[in-house]
Write a structure and sequence with these properties.
alpha+beta; Cupin; about 25% helix; Cupin_8; 5-stranded mixed sheet; JmjC_dom; 9-stranded mixed sheet
Amino acid sequence: MPAIESPIAEVHGVDAAALPDSVLTSPTPLVLRGVVRHWPIVQASLRSPGDGVDYIRRFARDAPIVAMVAKPGTGGRFFYNEDLSGFNFHMEKPKLVAVLEAMLRHLHDANPPTIYMGSTTVDTYLPGLRAENDVVLGQRDPLFSVWIGNRTRIAAHQDVPDNLACVAAGRRRFTLFPPQQLENLYIGPLDFTPAGQAISLVDFHDPDYDRFPRFAEALKHAQMAELEPGDAIFIPSLWWHHIEALEGFNVLLNYWWRQTPAHMDSPMNALMLAIMSVRDLPAEQRAAWQDMFRHYVFEAGDDTAAHIPDAARRVLGPIDADAARSLRLRLLQRLNR
């Protein structure tokens, strides 16, 4: 792993029952040291991995979950195969308890298979766990998820929601980059990804600077932190993050939410449509559409539709849930023509 000089800024002494908005709306990442160390799941895992597994087992439903499994020799890195036509792992649907038991069974293996259960809804598969292990996020209504695995490396990717990730067991290393480092991270396919989000093709443990020369520039903007059980990290929307689980048994609990109304679609949908309908236009037309996006989207303001009566502005006026529903229906009709 290349040396990274800039640490992620840290906050100490905040209360999980009253996290300040200055943290939850921060435009830059923050590490919250010890903020959930009091959680029962953290205390159990600090005693031993076995105690941590026993604690989680109390809440586990007898239902299959989705897990990613890679053979020994991958170094914990979930990635593509050589020609990017597939992946170096496969999906299984074990019971959650079976995943926990596999963690313990391979805990001390020098070269274990890599097992990873990601983004699993806590309230669905571990009902009751949140009642004993939670933070207060004000009026936000977050998605609460659990991630369990052994030593894994998750390639740099970005998420649209804000993210508060809490380490419940094991240690994790987070390496973050600002959104503006997109072109220096060499992102792979947008529509064929290991787990839903496009990822960096750079192996952070062994960067190929001949193939990815601009990654050296990305590293100048990187921030890094290692988190212990009970620590948390706030990752703002669209910050690139590479995550390494450093122990044989690791549990992460995270909260996702967006600082936008629920009726707003993901901007990724707009990007994919723009690639399909704008990117390959003749240069003159593409420039005209660039100016149109600037006028109606990126620099839109009070003057954009000031010449149109309020009642006649329609999509150029404020969009509420009803307007979004109507617009979505119209777009679906056009896309399905």
